[in-house]
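User: Second chain of the day. Same drill as before.
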Amino acid sequence: MNQFDKYIEDTTFVVVDVETTGLNPVNDRITEIAMLKVKNGVLLDEFSTLINPLVPIPNRITEITGIDNIMVADAPTAREIVPMVIEFLEDSIFVAHNAPFDWSFIYQTVWRERNVELFNPQLCTVKLSRRILPFLYSKSLDPVTAALNINIPARHRASGDAYATALILIKFLSFLRQRYEIRTVKELLQFQDGCS
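Assistant: Same format as last time:
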């Protein structure tokens, strides 16, 4: 059975959040990563670490994230953590709030540091929010978590944002099963893309 035909409750989702030195996945670098494994509504495992980007962190980024050059000075480099990222992702469904952003940084970093190409299907909780919560003025993390009564333990830090996104995912999957009888990964991805 390929992963698209798998039932959602039998599927491993890895919820990812990265903090970065900027918005360009080619020129900018990851400063922090958090990854949470979710299966059948349960948080199974977590991997998170600061990353030394080997370039200065701009002041405007430090103001948002609180991550500065001193904090990452003794952290592992991207080259050191990429094997752990690859192992943690395995053949899971990659999930993030605004998945194209986080995926582009993970993909570029893994390719640049280890010459490995990733092929994980991507599920975006922003896209799901557009379909499930169309009334929200914004689908960014703060209004979505507020609408779902989810508390973000540490906003603009990878672990806090990933944890909140994992809780969003769990609530959305439960809702989609009950409301739309969505059972498989293929149906879930079709719903995300507006094809159901």
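The longest helix spans residues 158-180.

User: Great, on to the next one.
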